[in-house]
Amino acid sequence: LTINCWRGLVGGLLVAVYVFWRRRRDGSSTRPLRLGWRGWFMAVVGACASIAFIAAFKNTYVANVAIIYATAPFVAALLGWLLLRERVRSQTLLCAILSLGGVGAMVFSGLGTGRPLGDGLALVMTCGSALYMVLVRKFRNTPVVWAGAVSALMLFVLGWLVTDPLAISARDAVLLAAFGASYAVASVMWTEGARLIPAAEAGLLGSAEVPFAVLFGWLFLAEIPPAASLAGGAAVLAAVFAHAGRDWLAARKPTPLPAS
After folding, report:
1. Which end of the chain is more exposed for a tag (fewer CB within 10 A), N or C?
2. How far is it, in rounded angstroms, from Cα 248 to Cα 84?
3. Which pTM does this prediction carry?
4. Are the beta carbons of 8 and 148 closer than 8 angstroms?
């Protein structure tokens, strides 16, 4: 919770600064910035997912968390069908089944290594993030970036109440502040970047996060997941990249001109 506290404080403040700067730039600073019950619900869901996110990293391999999180688009598709009655494409369903098998292999492999708690938290985080994606679509008039800032500040308040965030060294304070700043920059850049490119390309770029997370876990933490995790991860990555790659190719296919 100390990590979430600092991440929430620094990240929430930076995202809030961006929100007010953007409103002033767009000339919408006179409009009331209200979340309503929808925005507060999104903020709570985001905060819970963030808590599970950090806890998962402390209880399992970085690779496991990253690969399980890669299934979030498929979970979002399922939730979109349940909550919004959005049609699920056959290719999404097939890739979801393949990725589910991969995640099952990873979680099963963790039963004998003391890692099931971390894998379970990663699943909770993934479901929370997927629900957040669906809520963004359902509550279209809700200020999403502002809800993200409030969600981060909620983590700060919770961490302040149950921990002592000042009981850390100066070095750790700098690292935690940098972590919060990177979270804010990533959130803003992802939100704004996704508005400028097709959804298929955004999905493909998002999928590239997984191999980088596995690589950095190996480089900085010397983590080498067990063979079952690697096999399950390969199945998940195959499903994710196949799905995103097919969407990307379809988006780049030229639209035929109407017959004259």
Report:
1. C
2. 24
3. 0.76
4. no
